[in-house]
Amino acid sequence: MTSTLGARAPRLRGARALFTGRDGGVSTGDHASLNLARHVRDDDAAVIENRSRLAAEIGAPLVFVDQVHSADVHVLPATGEAPVVTADAIVTGREDVALAIMVADCLPVLLSDPVSGVIAVAHAGRKGLLGGVLEATVAAMTELGARPGDLTASIGPAICGACYEVPEDMRADAAARIPATASTTTWGTPALDLRAGAVAILQGEGFAQDAIDADHPCTLEDERFFSYRRSATTGRFAGVLRRA
Ligand SMILES: [Zn+2]
Fold first, then answer.
1. Whole domain around residue 211: which residue ranges?
2. Which residues surround ligand 1, an ion (CB under 5 A)?
3. Strands of the sheet with 152-155, listed across from one edge
4. 92 pLDDT higher than 60
5. 191 in a structural domain
6. 106 within domain boundaries
7. Are 227 and 159 contacting, i.e. CB atoms less than 8 angstroms apart?
């Protein structure tokens, strides 16, 4: 896919999807340039312009949520205005809006059922993943008519299991809930592989093995993306999804 915002298009079925990077926006300094978050001390006018460019790119108004590392899922009203609420996942069957989820090391997870037309985006960091945000998102999609066996997923750029260092007890706690998350850094210390954990959860939810696209860069290693671990003052990029 060609995109003026440097997006890497995942192989989702039934939806148009993209992951933004740092290029293509108007923010400067630590937020250069396509920062999409309003809570990270960037110039608000710049963020509004960046969001406007992204909406033009995807061809529909963007719906964001105020993300708080919860497992709360926001199902959009069937028509009309989509209010900004506090949640970490958004679900809809609507075609007139695009869903956006912001990250800078956490997993941006995009989900689409090409049969029912139900789509979703989710923000899954350590806390959200362990809290069940992906299971809650799939449950909300199912309630709108999606079937797990029809679902496709793309898990975008995020910090990898060889970089995401955590204390030993944190790794043990995570592995007790999702064994696939246990990992080790390249320098030999305890780490978490959130991507492997997300794949395991989606497979457990009934996704077909070939329906999950998880081959995306590590945000800490790849400077095309914002990374909170690289710099605490930074922007957020987004996974964006619109029903095709
Ligand atoms: Zn890495």
1. 15-243
2. 160, 163, 218, 220-221
3. 73-75, 89-92, 119-124, 107-112, 152-155, 212-213
4. yes
5. yes
6. yes
7. yes
**pLDDT tens figures, 102-135:** 999 999 999 999 999 999 999 999 999 999 999 9
Q: How far is the CA of 176 from the centre of ligand 1 (A)?
A: 23
Q: What is the CATH number of the domain that holds 53?
A: 3.60.140.10
**Cβ neighbours of residue 168 closer than 8 Å, sequence gap 6 or more:** 190
If you search the block for the tokens 């926001």, which residue do you land on?
74
**Distant-in-sequence, close-in-space partners of 83: CB < 8 Å, separation ≥ 6:** none
Q: Which regions of 9-127 does DSSP assign to beta strands (E)?
A: 15-19, 62-63, 73-75, 89-92, 98-103, 107-112, 119-124
The Å distance, Cα 222 to ligand 1 centre, comes to 8
What residues are paired with 111 via a beta bridge?
120, 153
Residues 6+ apart with CB under 8 A from 47: 27, 35, 36, 37, 38
Q: How far is the CA of 204 from the centre of ligand 1 (A)?
A: 25
The tally of domains found in the chain comes to 1
Q: Encoding tokens for residue 34? A: 């396509």
Q: Using the mean position of ligand 1's atoms as its centre, give its distance from the Cα of residue 44 in Å.
A: 30
Q: Which two tokens stand for residue 150?
A: 């029809």
Per-residue pLDDT tens over the stretch 183-214: 999 999 999 999 999 999 999 999 998 999 99
Q: Does residue 218 form part of some domain?
A: yes
Torsion angle of the four alpha carbons 57, 58, 61, 66, in this order, in degrees rounded to the nearest 10: -100
